[in-house]
Amino acid sequence: MREVESKMPTPMTVKGAEALRRELKQRKTEKRHEISKAIGAAREHGDLRENAEYHAAKEQQSFNEGRIQQIETRLADAQVIDITKIPLQGKVIFGATVTLIAVDSGDSTRYKIVGEDEADLKTGKISVMSPIARALIGAAVGNAVTVRTPKGERVYAIDSVDHI
Q1: Is the Cβ–Cβ distance between 159 and 99 less than 8 Å?
Q2: What is 84-162's CATH number, 3.30.565.10, 3.10.50.30, 3.40.640.10, 3.30.70.20?
Q3: How far is it, in rounded angstroms, from Cα 96 to Cα 124?
Q4: Are 109 and 7 in contact (CB under 8 A)?
Q5: Residue 125 CB neighbour total at 10 angstroms
Q6: Could you give phi then psi for residue 145, rounded to 5 degrees?
Q7: Per-residue pLDDT of the chain in tens (164 residues, 90 and over written 9)
Q8: Which contiguous run of DSSP H or E holds residue 15?
Q9: Bridge partner residues of 12 (DSSP)
Q10: Which of 12, 81, 91, 127 is the most buried (most CB within 10 A)?
Q11: 78: left (phi > 0), else alpha (psi -120 to 50), else beta?
Q12: Is 44 helix (H, G, I), strand (E, B) or coil?
């Protein structure tokens, strides 16, 4: 008898899940309605074979429905983790906000470890799958970690771990 391969749940923060639910609701209601109106208006222009507005609206519809399906799948596969409910132990875990000190320069950097959909380096959110997050997970305050990146290795000291 063959075993059915089970898919591992995808970690996601509470805020990340809320953002996806908001986007899903907006796409299913407002966006679908806008696209439907655009398709109707384009149909009124006549021959659909050479109607660029109609084809653009249908393409938007296809993209929107694909994104809806993608979000629904992500939410179905999500393991939503509320970091504020996990006791602070000084170790880096998913959802934690970590302050690092670069050993070579003394520069301080702060990252929040989040799910892949939530990652945004500009706002200090890094994917749990990124090289730096993978090096940090399980390490504790005071530990030094070596991060291998495409630009080479960097060593960081973990200054603090917060559950915010």
Answers
A1: yes
A2: 3.10.50.30
A3: 12
A4: no
A5: 18
A6: -125, 145
A7: 444 445 678 899 999 999 999 999 999 999 999 999 998 888 887 776 777 888 899 999 999 999 999 999 999 999 999 999 998 888 999 999 999 999 989 999 999 999 988 999 999 999 999 999 999 999 999 999 999 877 889 999 999 999 88
A8: helix 14-26
A9: 80
A10: 12
A11: beta
A12: coil
Residue 60, CA distances (Å) to 46, 54, 66, 77, 151 in order: 20, 10, 10, 26, 39
* Fold category of 10-80 in CATH: Helix Hairpins (1.10.287)
Cβ atoms within 10 Å, residue 149: 11
3 state DSSP class of 80: strand
Q: Which residue type does 15 have?
A: K
pTM above 0.90, yes or no: no
In whole angstroms, what is the distance from residue 65 CA to residue 63 CA? 6
